[in-house]
């Protein structure tokens, strides 16, 4: 990869991180976004603990997709969540960007150890079912490789429940917060915004009607597949 393309990767990841702030999903330094160049096996991710108002594209850290270690010459330490990002990139081959936040509503569902039910078509437009909740980590997993094992728990949940990460582009970690992903860093941020929005809508739905029923599967299928299925007709034709 040329220096120019490395700069483009850093710019895209920088832009994704700043969009998390503009969208109101990040407080202080509680969040990060990354992107991957699979051809060269490189992940670009926000540096650990750097304030967003001080962040610059050159600060984005490049790490190995294979090992998670910073490339030679990197001057800043990558996000402490880097092992989770690397694990997801290794196991979910169709994704190109990841966004992790501690956004208010989605994190509340995670702390309550509840998946986000699908109460309407706003949710079904992007998630073909619930926003899932993964299992808690064991004490051993927490003490040894906590961030890597967070990724493992996500991957295991999707495999065990036959979930397609392209059809369910995000999840909640119990007692923790959401992760979202997409084809690009920008799309990962878009999905993080959607996770937060449907989390807020679901919370309000249950406040208005504690006996609210979830969306019938026929409606979920219709709204998801009209945007994402092989016969999708939402939006304009691709040229």
Describe this structure in words.
The chain has 239 residues and is of the alpha+beta class. It has a single domain, classed as L-fuculose-1-phosphate Aldolase, CATH 3.40.225.10. It contains eight helices and six strands. It has helices at residues 3-22, 82-91, 104-111, 121-124, 139-143, 146-160, 185-208, 217-228; strands at 31-37, 42-45, 61-64, 97-101, 170-172, 178-182. A six-stranded antiparallel beta sheet has the order 3-2-1-4-6-5, sandwiched between helices. Strand 5 (170-172) and strand 6 (178-182) form a beta hairpin. Helix 3 crosses helix 7. The radius of gyration is 18 Å and the shape is globular. The mean pLDDT is 96.
Task: Name a few traits of the molecule.
single chain; 239 residues; alpha+beta; L-fuculose-1-phosphate Aldolase; six-stranded antiparallel β-sheet; 8 helices; 41% helix; globular
**Helix vs. strand class:** alpha+beta
Gross morphology is: globular
What oligomerization state is this entry in? single chain
End-to-end distance, in Å?
28 Å
| Overall tally of domains | 1
**Helical residues, percent:** 40-55%
Q: Could you please say which CATH topology applies here?
A: L-fuculose-1-phosphate Aldolase
Strand order of the largest sheet: 3-2-1-4-6-5
Largest sheet: 6 strands, antiparallel
What proportion strand? Answer: 5-15%
Uncertain residue segments: none
Indicate the CATH architecture. Answer: 3-Layer(aba) Sandwich
CATH homologous superfamily identity: Class II aldolase/adducin N-terminal domain
Broad CATH class: Alpha Beta
Q: What do the pLDDT scores average to?
A: 96
Rounded radius of gyration (Å): 18 Å
